[in-house]
Amino acid sequence: MTINGVGTPTAPPPARLTPIAEVAPADEVAARPAEPAPDLPAPAGVRADPDEGARDKLLRLLEELGEDRVEDLLRFGSSLKWQFRTLADGLTRQGFRVAFAEGMSCAPEVAMDGRHLVNFTPHNVLNLQSRPDVMNCFTTAARRFGLAAGGSRFGTGITRAHTDLETEFSRIVGKERAVSYASGADAAQSFVHAMTIRQSWPSDLTLDHTEVVVVLDRDVHRGWWKAAEALDYGKRLFSFRHNDADHLDSVLHGLRGKRIVVVMESVYAGDGSVAPLSDLIGVCERHGALSCVDDSAGFLVYGPEHRPFAAEYAGLPQASFVLASLDRTLGLTGCVVAGPGEAITALEALDPSPMFGGQLSPATAATATFSMRLLTATEPTLVDRYLERVTAFRAELTGAGLRVNATPSLMTSVDIGRESTAAALRDALFDRGYRAPVDVFPNAARKHATLRLTMNAAHSDEHLHGIVAALQELRPKLGF
After folding, report:
1. Is 39 within a domain?
2. What are the pLDDT digits (tens) for 166-197?
3. If you write DSSP's letter for every residue of 211-252 in order, what string do you get?
4. Residue 410's domain spans which residues?
């Protein structure tokens, strides 16, 4: 959905200051005859001397608008062209609103809008934030380091908690060095910014990336498209068909001679598909392009040889950069980007976030490090048991005749079809005690809205059987 007419307002020209020598004496000013008032131009689109027909038309228009809109027109004038009210009214009709939770919002059960709900949102999937040892790590770190992030990375510096997090993340993904961010959006924005700008420093030190081209998988998270929106599509921004190594090869062949950064995901949250990382990164290497893999949905879940998609993940260490948000698996805010040591140093210097933005709180950083070690060394079977239950849940959904996404990853979704049907289903499930988000265009294909059903490790069998039964009940009523 587009809001038309929004742009950067043009500042009025500065007022001209009259030099002192030009100011006439008071008696001379008094002696001058009064000048006639200038004819001011009418506002754009309004005739200075409307005829009777135009007046009648204006009166009819004001009548149709009603008192509220007329007051808005008088108060805001041309700002109504921005269509904020039209957008807000349309979103309200579609059921758009921000939910309010009492207590934890990413727990398997939540209290929301006065209701007790079983929660299927795709965050904190292992429910680590409810473990006493994880909570104790956070509170201990908060007492040691304080609650505040302390400003920007370069303005205030970082703590031992941040360096431990970045070192541990680098070890897990096999990279030399890492830098942490307050959110995934910050990381994506900063990465694309650093890869595509020109920056100068004292002593004639300059780095120029203004000719770099960014290539995105078409289904990559919208945050990446948002980060790259300032680049001209077809000049500095290109895309390739989802998970299609041959098409990526064709796109890069057409860009030969240019410096290129290719961004892909490991696991796509929308449809649960898993990228053939070895094939895609191999294409990047043949063309001399850098590769960045967003591993947010699969981080610490996939990779070991005994788990699903080990073959697809075998190519991850060859990526130039690996990025992962911490919210899905660890249930924490923040994101980390790892890569070659010199490149990460350059990212720190070029990124606006480390220079000007806030960083992770030290307590969050310390808890992320503790949780990563928990899942890789202390209790890796937590993930194995979780994946076994995900497989059983998908089988139950499929057995109920629901159109489940094809790839059996942890990101489970059901194709509902029309957006209006998905909205009705979401509301009906809410009435039955289930919170399950839906994706509509542009987060899903048109007329292929999806119901997200990401299982939490703490969901009981009763929770899972219950939502399957609810979907079976609602399917013939809503026609999905």
Report:
1. no
2. 999 999 999 999 999 999 999 999 999 999 99
3. T-EEEEETTS-HHHHHHTTTSPBTTTEEEE-TT-HHHHHHHH
4. 101-122+381-478
